[in-house]
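Blackboard transcription, Thursday session:
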Amino acid sequence: MITARSSVGCADRSTHGYRRAVSEPPSFLPARSYLDAATVAPVRAPAREAYLAALEEGWADPRRLHREGRHARLLLDAARQAVAAALKVEPDEVVFTTSHREAVAVAVSGVLRARTRPGRLVHSAVEHSAVLSAAAAWQAATGTQPHSLAVDREGRIDPDDLPQALTAPSPADLCCLQSANGEVGTRQPLEAAAQACERAGVPLLVDAAAGMAYEPCPSEGDLVTADARAWGGVPGVGVLVVRRRTRWLADDPVLDGPERGPGEPALPAVFAAAAALQDAVAVRETLAPRLHALTGRIRDAAAQVVDTEVAGAPDDRLPHIVTFSSLYVDGEVIVEEFDRRGFAVGSGSACTSSTLRPSHVLAAMQVLTHGNVRVGLPPEVSEAEVDAFCAQLPAAVGDARRRLGVSEL
Amino acid sequence: MSGSPAEPAPTPVVDARGLRCPLPVVRLAAAAKQAPAGTLLVLLSDDPAAEVDVAAWCRMRGHELVGRSTTDGVLTSTVRTRPTSPPRAG
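(Written on the board underneath:)
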């Protein structure tokens, strides 16, 4: 267990205890259930403790040679080793960035920089917006249009599409594929994709941001990206794994040392990310099946509601994510209906996004984009909360339809 | 198109231009409910969600998406309502 001092341990791993101590609302407020933790989970107790400890011990510049600097350096090294061990990679393969978005951008630009005549980039149609942005930057730099791989109704690519996509009309120089989707939970066929990439000689970037709290770091991929917020770290830390064999060049050669990378994430946040990841790894074997069963209940309850469709793979999926869409329902209204009942949920509907465009993931899957509800269970969610949500689900959808005057359709 | 009396539309036209999701599908569903089974309906829409959502509605409610085309940002979807009357939404 990563600690700054022996006195600041993380002895109490009981997330329920932490929740009662920290998150219990005052008694005059109605009970709230935060069920919007698909990609950003509440900060775990060990992360909070590690963060505070590192504020005490690790505020100095780790590159300085005095005692305070060395102290900070020790914490940074400990964090790097802890993250590497948790991901089962080497410490010098770990790059810390200031966000998941930056980790993806740096991963892609580093591959681009290592090539003299870069070719095309291939990605799935359901990648995180960070990957789509990086693909746009690739296109701007190379003038080659990225190839977007179609997905099926469950949001999964067909790995048989890859050999063609990676070689024609011209050879590709990078393939980006998520381990699993952060909106609908569907896992991608990583092993088959990695084999296709290897055969074609194309490096593979695996974006593992959505699932890292509940699944081992993928062994596939020359580069792997992750987001500390997904496993309950303090916001502001992305992780990029660059495996040793990868042809990749950092933005700035000066930074291509132990802290290579473009920005300098705050050391206390990095330290907290490491502590949270250790905690996530320690509890995931029991937690993942529990959450999988609970999201299964929500899937069943939603499927019972008239004109409602559950999206994503029923079983081969992340344990904590479930999303469904109801016909004739306004996404904003259904989020309000749940909110007023005490449940915070997300949505991929156009009216809930700043761009007024529906989720590109739902659109690529050809599933209903309006009336969409996205649930991400946090690690400490209780069975009672999930059952209460399931019990309220039909009424929330029904009331949303009544408000729009569409109950008779 | 739909507003021109000189050229009567061959099929009922639901004009949902300017309406945001889910209203284009709601208007289409309302027209489908009034229409006899197997009727052809045309929906005009310019909401970016409509293309996916009309197809999903057809699939979920058993209607047939006969055709669709986009001109100047306006999506024209042609739908044949299901042969039997659909059940009511709850």
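Lecturer's comment: Chain B has two helices and four strands.
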